[in-house]
Fold this protein.
Amino acid sequence: MLECRFFNEEKWSISFIEKTIRLYYVKLLLEGVFTYLINNLGVKDVQFEELVSLDADFLRQRSPVYGVIFLFKYPTGEKPHGAPRDGTFDYEAAENQFFAAQTIQNACGTQALLSVLLNKVDAIDIGPKLQEFRDFTSVFPADLRGEALSNSELIRAVHNSFARASPFADEAQRLATEEDDVYHFIAYTATNGKLYELDGLQPAPISHGSCEPDEFPDKVIPVLQRRIERYPAQEIRFNLMAMVRDLRIRARAIGDQDWLYQEEQKRNGWQWENALRRHNLMGFAGEILKGVVSSKLAEGNEKYAEWVEQAESKTKARLKER
């Protein structure tokens, strides 16, 4: 079951700020984090591209597309079903392809991207260490694959190297409720002639019908649309990334220097953002907040009280919209 680590509600100001920054970092340039994560795992010539629309043509332009990673708010209040709400469980596929049960709660992103990589060894150079891990776990059931994944020194070290710094320690731990914001990553990929949804919290891969690799953009978009339609219309907290061949390869092949320059600059930005993730910026944020409060106090107590009241009203309005 999912667990939610949270902070003492009496310390609401710290909890609110931390939750806000957590959500920001969850969505901040994930394509850069995931690209450099797989590079450090030894994968060659693969990158992630954020998709800003559910458009099959847009996705096809980035072909070959090995799979997509979908981030969404996990419905913690939803009761478990005996069958998936879309598609069908394929228990046989859990044995003849790489599928691992999720055994730890804070690495679903890493597990989702590995679910694509380790099922695309015919199209991707995953490097000797991941290949050795895949070969070693090939005869394991899903639960033991999950344990092996969580105990892999290479995967754990690379995953932890991208963990963001936090000044807080967990003060309590409980099961997530409907009031908690819990986010989860899953993967979609075409393998063995079918479109599969790979979610380590499910008992088996979920089949969405026949699909060859070149059909993937057309087949996966309707599945994603149906998934998003389960949520209220005002819910926008989603992130979708495609795992594709390094776009610099195509830019060099066609001699497009402008495109190549843009891709190199994008990677420079990713490196900068990844470096920021490793630093604790709470002190910096605190100094900014103190400066703002001081400037409001300088305007007089009445202005300060009015400013606080406006902020509280806006916060309450946003909570009602959720």
Summary: Confidence is low (pLDDT under 50) at residues 1-27, 168-175.
